[in-house]
Amino acid sequence: MLKIRNLDAGYGKLRVLKNVSMHVNAGEIVTIIGANGAGKTTLLATIAGLIRATSGTIRFQDVELCRLTAPKIPALGCVMVPEGRQVFATMTVEENLILGGHVRQKEGKKLIMDRLAYQYELFPILRERRNQFAGTLSGGEQQMLAMGRALMSKPSLVMMDEPSTGLAPLIVRDIFQIIVRLRDEGSTVLLVEQNARAALSIADRGYV
Question: How many CB atoms neighbour CB 68 within 10 A?
Fold first, then answer.
C-alpha cells in the first residue's frame, strides 16, 4: 500500500530524514517509535505533503505522492491525525466531523450521514457531545474527535501522530483498542508513538 524509498526531507537546509526506506502493507498496524527529534513527525508530514521531499519516492497505492500538493493526498485515501489534535475549537463536535466527510468532494449527504453514525458508534462520547464546541472537550475527547474527523472520509491509510500524548492511561487504552478495531475492520494504520510498549503491543510490525 505504502512504499518509501531513499527518502530525504527536512526544513530548509536542515535535513531531518536521511535515506529512509520502509513499507506498509494493507491491513496492518505499523508503528514508528523513537525519541523526540528523531524525525517521526517529519516523516508523516512528508507523506501527507506538508513537507516537500528533497529526494526519494513515496508511493501510495501506486501513486507517487511527492508530485502532489498536500490538499490532493487525503482525497486518495491517505489521511493524518496530527499531534496536538488540532480540532476546530469554535465549531461543534458534529460540525468538525462533517467537515472531515467533505475531504472527498464527490461524497453525497447520505453517505456522510451514514459515516457520521458510524463515528458515533465508534466514539459514543462524541454523540453525547455532538452539539458542544470542540474547544470545551477534554484532551481525550479531542483526540477521539480528531480521529473521527479523519475517519469520516473512509481512508485506506490512517496516519496517527502521538495519539497518547498528554492522556490518562485509561484513555490511552481506549484509543488503542479503537486503533485495533480499525485494523480488524480493514483499515491500515501508520502509528507514530513515544509510548513504545503500548504501540508495540498492538502493532503488526515496527520501525525504530
Answer: 16
Of residues 153 and 145, the one with the higher pLDDT is 145
Question: Can you tell me whether residue 68 is helix, strand or coil?
Answer: coil
| pLDDT over threshold 80, residue 104 | no
Distance CA 20, CA 8 (A): 7
C-alpha cell at 151: 475517519
pLDDT of residue 17: 95
Identity of the amino acid at 204: D
Round to whole Å and give the CA distance between 52 and 81: 19
Q: Of residues 108 and 198, which shows the higher confidence score?
A: 198
CA distances from 62 to 71, 74, 101, 205 (A): 18, 15, 24, 22
**Cell numbers representing residue 60 in the block:** 501510495
3-state secondary structure of 127: helix
Q: Which domains does the chain have, with CATH numbers?
A: 1-77+156-207 (3.40.50.300), 86-154 (no CATH)
The secondary structure element, H or E, covering residue 20 is strand 14-24
Taking a C-beta distance cutoff of 8 angstroms, is the pair 73, 153 a contact? no
d(CA 3, CA 119): 29
pLDDT above 90: residue 103: no
